[in-house]
């Protein structure tokens, strides 16, 4: 007889909890079909589950995380499949919202854990899950993921995606979102972190790296389906201008300051400060403004101006300015960021001590509690994906920063026209990238309603998200879809044999 609800439980040596869990589920008024996938068990998990009323499928070998869930989904008879873990006894009252959501038309009903405002919300795995949703243009899902139980899935979603997709939950989630026919929502709030038993630091580290790799695989699905920018705007960048063939550098200087500008009001003050700093050359890239607006700041022979009648696009001015001068050190900032000599020198000093890229240390400015916006999440995730979690939210996207001239010529001037791409290229090349000094650009940066406000669709935010997705596309081109986070645990081959 076809059941309305099936509950899937993957279990490995859960003899202590599987009996009470199955009995509680069987007493639930919904009378679900309870399926236990006992894999690699050396205790009485299977027999206890069967005695408590579950349908049991046994595997001699361990299947690894999530694979048992996929096997359970392949044999479940319910119109709704609810996935829980064998070591967590969640009261049916807390499971009800997930089932009701699917009954109401949701195809994938997720647990909203980890909750915003909590320490777990900033855990590397939560950042990875959150970033995946942002790249999929579902920032509303925050860090909610099919990796986390409990969750409920409609029969329709299982048929469209296929049970094997759920062996790597973020892959199933990315496919579901990209498909466009499936409805995915947060349906409940179960604090599973308090229920999940600790298995030791080594296990936690292995799971952390597995989930990060899973989310990278999910991001790869988005790139494959929607392109390297995932459909996010490039805001009209004139990338062709950042190609160096038409520019001939002049005599080499020791230190050059590069300032893209559209004639901002604070430019005169900034140039004055830069003139007092140890620069041999200051280059202003005026674009999309009247050339006459900048003549008042050309006060010394060290200041030169490149003029473009039309805007060249975000970050392209940085690349153009660097290409026009041959320097040992490039210091890059924006015209609307007031700086002092004390803000400039730590970046130049870092290059002198063999740092290749000296970044603004934004973790000293922004507490983790404030790092909840999409740009902060994708910046942190990119560093995690590059195996550089120590960089936090520091990014070439943010000014000011300094770059060694030798290194910039190595990774290519065009790379910094999409700053996260340049950052990834540098890290993968084994270069010394370091967050060296905090400058509070968050407080200083002027709000531009047409770029920042929700009414305008937050195009600058979307640009930054697209830049980081493009950078991850490059990372995956070099390292593969999981980056440096392989999956040595799962036995998807055993699931394939069983399901096929």
UniProtKB/TrEMBL annotation:
Requisite cofactors: Mg(2+)
Catalytic activity: (2R)-3-phosphoglycerate + UDP-alpha-D-glucose = (2R)-2-O-(alpha-D-glucopyranosyl)-3-phospho-glycerate + UDP + H(+); an NDP-alpha-D-glucose + (2R)-3-phosphoglycerate = (2R)-2-O-(alpha-D-glucopyranosyl)-3-phospho-glycerate + a ribonucleoside 5'-diphosphate + H(+)
Lineage summary: Bacteria, Bacillati, Bacillota, Bacilli, Bacillales
Protein species of origin: Alicyclobacillus dauci
EC numbers, comma separated: 2.4.1.266
Gene3D superfamilies found in the cross-reference section: Spore Coat Polysaccharide Biosynthesis Protein SpsA, Chain A
UniProt keyword annotations, A-Z: Glycosyltransferase, Magnesium, Transferase
Source superkingdom: Bacteria
Domain Glycosyltransferase 2-like: 6-126
Sequence similarity: Belongs to the glycosyltransferase 2 family.
Main EC class the enzyme belongs to: transferase
Alphabetized Pfam families for the sequence: Glycos_transf_2 (PF00535)
InterPro entries attached to this UniProt entry: Glyco_trans_2-like, Glycosyltransferase_2, Nucleotide-diphossugar_trans
Protein name, per record: Glucosyl-3-phosphoglycerate synthase
